[in-house]
Structure formats: C-alpha cells, structure tokens
C-alpha cells in the first residue's frame, strides 16, 4: 500500500517580521491545505526552512500538524533528515511516538557520505524505528545523489517504502522504477514541473511546493494523470507550468512566500541567509498567477 496517491504539500513555514515562527499563520496554511484536498502534509521539509529552526520547533510544528489532521484522511509525513544519523534517529523516534504516518529522510549533506554510507545511514534508522520511510534524493541541495543500485538495495527493507525524487531527471526515475519493479516501493516526484511525465512513467504522486499556492489544482492534475485522462491533465499541466517555473526563480521557499504574502495568507519573511526576492521576480510570478487564475481551472 502506498503512503498516499496524489499530492502532498511541502508546507511553507510562515514567520513574523522579527523572524519568529508565526504559528497562527502555520495553522491557517495547514487548514488551507486540508480544505484544498491534498492527500498528505509534509511538515519540516526544505520548504519549511528546517535548516534555520530548532529541533524543538520542528517537534511543535509536527504536533500542530497531527492535531489539525486528526479525523481526516490526510496523511502526515514528518521531515526527519539530518547530516547526523543520531539526530535523524531522534526525529524519527519522535515522529513514530506521536503517530506520524511516515518520515522523509534526506541524504546527509555537507559532510555527505559514500553510497555504502548511505545504506548504513538509512538502514540504521529503518532498523531502529518501525515507521514507513521515504528517501529524499535532492542532489542539487545536498551534493549527494542516491545511485539507482543503492535505491534498489534500500527498497528491500520493509520500512523503506518510497523515495521523493527531486533530481528532475525522468531517465533516472525510469531506471529506479525499472529496478524496483515487483517491490513494495513507490516513487514520488519532488519537482512540480514534471508531475505529468513522472506519473505517466509510474510515479504515485508529487511532494509539492506548488500545492502551497494551488492545492486543489495540483491535486486535480495528479489525479487526472493517475487516471490516464491525458488531454485534461495536459491542459492543466501546461496552464500551471509558468507558475511552477517562477516559483523557483529564486531559492525555495522565497517565491512561495512571496506568493502567499500577495494572497494575504502570511508575510514574506524569511530567516537569514534567505532574503526576499526582487521586484522583477515577483512580477514574473504574479503575472503567471494572474494568467492562470483567469483560466478558471
């Protein structure tokens, strides 16, 4: 059984002007996502600026997300990554204790490791904490790519059940899908610009930044693709493409926060070293949003 089939939102973390966490804004965003029909909530991911918040803040945000999703069918995935295996284990144990549906574990960054080290890192967590794990492959941020054969090895573990692939490389995804055929292992896109081809290749959905802005439309696109309704999926994918592109005109989550600030949902505040984007980038994104919204999709 897949953890979810559809769209999961990588939750933005609203902040006050002084850089403190805007918990009320976070609750508003979680409610928007649940009301918008997403299948899962990813809390404490990259889009949630976990690199600049304390682990105790991560735990509080997970608690809020679990509380707000209670009674719904929406799954909760807890970010549990670290470049320190002991810290990742601490996060994984907390997620299991509190009742999260799964954990997302990024490859160790900065100190990095070898492919053998990746296998040891992931299996240490999976052996210790009995919770479904999603590998997170994002070499553009970490400097480490999970080799296809490493994925296939890890997929044999009963607790390692999926991967978020943010390589934006369909050929890589195809090779992973081919090597894990017949295994209880799923693939999710980590790139909003390749949702349609990724799902056509065999992916089960997306862990999305775009959902923060348009949860209903992102979920609809995924479901149309999963059901094989390609004409309607193509129409929606092409309409969303400019928004998806300009959401990454600056370092994520700078642009999503700019969009949400324009929508009156939260402030555009970020923690240093991230800073607000340029007026030129805002215009590109806002014009793309206006054009999409005029379509009424």
Account of the protein in words:
The protein is of the alpha/beta class. The protein has a single domain (6-294), classed as TIM Barrel, CATH 3.20.20. Helix content is 46%, strand content 13%. It contains 12 helices and 8 strands. The protein has helices spanning 23-35, 55-69, 85-98, 115-128, 139-142, 148-154, 170-179, 195-201, 215-226, 230-246, 254-262, 279-294, and strands spanning 6-10, 40-43, 75-79, 102-106, 133-137, 160-165, 186-189, 205-208. An 8-stranded parallel β-barrel has the order 1-2-3-4-5-6-7-8, surrounded by 7 helices. The protein starts with 5 loop residues before the first strand and ends with a helix. InterPro entries: Aldolase_TIM (IPR013785), DapA (IPR005263), DapA-like (IPR002220), Schiff_base-form_aldolases_AS (IPR020625). This is 4-hydroxy-tetrahydrodipicolinate synthase. It is an enzyme of class 4 (lyase). One of its GO terms (molecular function) is 4-hydroxy-tetrahydrodipicolinate synthase activity. Pathway: Amino-acid biosynthesis; L-lysine biosynthesis via DAP pathway; (S)-tetrahydrodipicolinate from L-aspartate: step 3/4.
């Amino acid at each position: 059984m897949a953890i979810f089939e559809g769209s999961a939102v990588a939750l933005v973390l609203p902040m006050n002007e002084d850089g403190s966490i805007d918990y009320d804004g976070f609750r508003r965003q979680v409610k928007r996502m649940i009301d918008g029909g997403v299948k899962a909530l990813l809390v404490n991911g990259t889009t949630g600026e976990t690199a600049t918040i304390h682990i105790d803040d991560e735990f509080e945000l997970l608690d809020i997300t679990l509380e707000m999703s209670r009674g719904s069918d929406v799954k909760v995935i807890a970010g549990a990554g670290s470049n320190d295996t002991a810290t990742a284990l601490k996060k994984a144990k907390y997620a299991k204790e509190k009742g999260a549906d799964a954990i997302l574990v990024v490859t160790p960054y900065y100190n990095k490791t070898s492919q053998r080290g990746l296998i040891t890192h992931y299996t240490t967590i999976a052996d210790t904490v009995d919770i479904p794990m999603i590998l997170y492959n994002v070499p553009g941020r970490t400097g480490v790519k999970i080799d296809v054969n490493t994925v296939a090895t890890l997929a044999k573990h009963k607790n390692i059940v999926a991967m978020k692939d943010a390589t934006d490389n369909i050929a890589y995804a195809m090779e992973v899908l081919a090597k894990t055929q017949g295994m209880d292992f799923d693939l999710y896109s980590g790139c909003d610009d390749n949702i349609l081809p990724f799902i056509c290749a065999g992916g089960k959905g997306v862990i999305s930044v775009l959902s923060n802005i348009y949860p209903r439309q992102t979920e609809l696109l995924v479901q149309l693709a999963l059901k094989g309704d390609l004409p309607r999926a193509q129409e929606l994918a092409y309409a969303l493409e400019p928004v998806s592109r300009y959401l990454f005109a600056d370092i994520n989550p700078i642009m999503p926060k700019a969009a949400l600030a324009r929508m009156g949902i939260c402030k555009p505040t970020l923690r240093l070293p991230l800073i607000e984007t340029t007026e030129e980038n805002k215009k590109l994104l806002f014009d793309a949003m206006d054009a999409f919204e005029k379509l009424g999709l």
